[in-house]
Amino acid sequence: MTRLLRRVLAPPRLNADPRTHVLLLDVDGVLVTPPEWFGVRLRRESPTLTRQFFETAFHSASTGQSDLKEHLPDFIAALGRDQTPDEFLHEWLDSENHPNRALLTAVRELRAQGWHSYLATNQEAHRTKHLLEVVGLGDVVDGHFASCMVGHRKPSPEYYAEVTRRMGDDAAHLVFWDDNRDNVQAAREAGWQAFRYTSVRHFRRVMAVG
């Protein structure tokens, strides 16, 4: 009875062909899972300043309208920190350098089966480069659709429309994983096959890995 119940409750396996479908992966909370986000640390230091920073300066940088480093001197000074922009950014990026190695292994197995994979993430340019070159995500993807390059952030419909346009493919051929419910729902509304990431085990089950 228990075994039967497990089969009934198990998520269905994806019916997709790596020759025609493409894997799109969120980063934060999916491919990267640090014990604490740098933004959370900053909010403990200064809740109001941090909220304003992420709603204005960071939003601008993460949609490609500005360079994050242009905004850092004023923000660092307002926080009362004695750091250069490079030192502050290094602390930020280094603190979040925690790749989800078990998931990366699963992605590598999919790529060995013929899958092409891309990052689909809200990021500014400096962290995007760090994720690809230092964290090592560049080793498991063919490219990226960071919001700073797309010009829009998830879950705006414009983000998904632009990524679909750039892929030049049927939206239904885009297989997307994100831990954010709103992002997943927006992707589904755009015609993507979207799944909410909860665990490596669930990912492997749906993607038929192993």
UniProtKB/TrEMBL annotation:
Domain of life of the source: Bacteria
Q: Give the InterPro entries listed for this entry.
A: HAD-like_sf, HAD-SF_hydro_IA, HAD_sf
Q: List the residue ranges forming a coiled coil, or say none.
A: none
User: SUPFAM superfamilies recorded for this chain?
Assistant: HAD-like
- CDD domains with a match to the protein in the record: HAD_sEH-N_like
- Which NCBIfam families does the record match to this protein? HAD-SF-IA-v3
This one is known as HAD family phosphatase
Species:
Deinococcus rufus
